[in-house]
Input
Amino acid sequence: MTARSPAQELRARLRRACIPAAGEGNLRIATWNLREFGKTPRLDASIRILAATIASFDLVSIVELRDDLTDLHRLLKALGKYGPWRVVHSDYLRDAGGNRERVGFLYRADRVEFTGLASNAEATRTREGDEYEAPIPWWRAPFLASFSAGKFPFLLVAAHLRWGKTQAARETELRALGSWLQTRRKERFFGGENVLVVGDFNVANDRSQAWPALRENGLCQAPGLEGDPGTDLAQGKRYDRILVTEDDQNRLTGRAGAVDLYAGSYEPLLPKTGMTEKRLTWEISDHLPLWVELRT
Output
């Protein structure tokens, strides 16, 4: 049997994910932790793999986008063969907690419209004497932007929670995000009640006490992702999530999942590089993309 070429192997792995085709009434949203994207230059072949994967969707949230945007611009150029792709991204923080990371939203402009709002989440301030202080518990403030697809305007909120040994600290951040969203959604001029929350929450399983707290704040796991495999390469840890408001659950078609680009080895996608499997995770990622389909 003739061995597949890297391009054929990539197409086969994407087909196995059963991602629906673009249609007049649907929207495919994904979230992907692209391992330290921009820290060191990726191979041209790696950029093509990332572009072909992202082009399977309409709107993709990227975390671990670094301060250097050179590879992001290379990625946008590669995406150009698939359609009119654009990006909205945050600034970066220079300290160790911020890790010089940004959040980026890549979107196909003929399928999704960016409607103008882009901001970090800003916690409610309290007055202390003559000063206004905001005790934000996040290492990296969640980033949000407003979009519209068909008759569906929505806010996309992306977070990359802190790492470290203490899950309790991550759960504090997660609860703060849910509480902040519940408060802001009640405000008339916030930007809309339709909200999707995506990203890498660094909480590995469903036993965390943060998830009931999120449900109390009106957020739940996107239909179609209950019990799905994880998004680490071994598919055992559910770090990456897509959450929706209870009111928007009926927007989800139930078609959703993780894209197993790894499938046991990246080497068939990037042969003859001489790199170890661990090193190849800096060419593609140590996380798998997670996606859902919505009705618009």
